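Project outcomes to date are best conveyed with an example. Our students and postdoctoral researchers have been running inverse folding experiments weekly, and each run begins with a structure described purely in tokens. The record below, which covers 184 residues, was selected by the lab manager from last quarter's runs and is presented without edits.
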């Protein structure tokens, strides 16, 4: 089974208001060996400014994206990788998926419904007060080293998130979707 870890960095928080993806990471793992078998990371020209708040978080400037491809130029590649996966994993899946759905819709591409795990919404156990954990808090709860200086690079966030997923599966904190257990 192929598991794809997914993260984006964006121009802001609201894709319905025109915010766009500026970086995407799709890291594919073999579920049996838990080894990385494919890595796709791409920065994207959003054709619009990046909000100051978003830039403060990820440190990506619009000027550094001017020569990058537009999403429509990479949409088929992204879709192909997602379509080849059996399970999608993200930390705050609704946020990233909403951006991806909007970007694909603008390109006239459907996005398939697929089994998923959200390492944030399925991890209230990671914080003493029962809130949704930040990725750093999830890493702390599972003993995964988290480097704040590397955080918010999409591929780094996927890497540590997947380390958390493996540990969470081993400890019974996460469960594979039922449809995948039957197929496994």
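After processing, the design step wrote out the following sequence:
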């Amino acid at each position: 089974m192929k598991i794809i870890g997914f993260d984006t960095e964006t121009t802001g928080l609201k894709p319905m208001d025109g915010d766009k993806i500026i970086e995407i990471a799709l890291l594919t793992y073999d579920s049996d060996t838990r080894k990385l078998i494919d890595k796709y990371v791409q920065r994207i020209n959003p054709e619009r400014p990046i909000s100051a708040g978003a830039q403060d978080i990820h440190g990506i400037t619009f000027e550094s994206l001017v020569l990058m491809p537009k999403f429509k130029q990479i949409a088929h590649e992204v879709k192909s990788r997602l379509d080849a996966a059996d399970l999608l994993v993200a930390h705050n899946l609704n946020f990233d998926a909403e951006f991806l759905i909007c970007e694909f819709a603008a390109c006239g591409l459907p996005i398939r419904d697929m089994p998923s795990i959200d390492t944030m919404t399925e991890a209230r156990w990671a914080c003493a007060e029962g809130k949704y954990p930040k990725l750093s808090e999830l890493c702390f709860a599972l003993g995964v080293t988290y480097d704040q200086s590397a955080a918010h690079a999409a591929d780094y966030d996927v890497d540590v998130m997947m380390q958390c997923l493996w540990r969470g599966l081993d400890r019974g904190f996460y469960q594979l979707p039922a449809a995948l257990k039957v197929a496994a």
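The mean pLDDT is 95. The two ends are 7 Å apart (CA to CA). The training component of this project remains on track.
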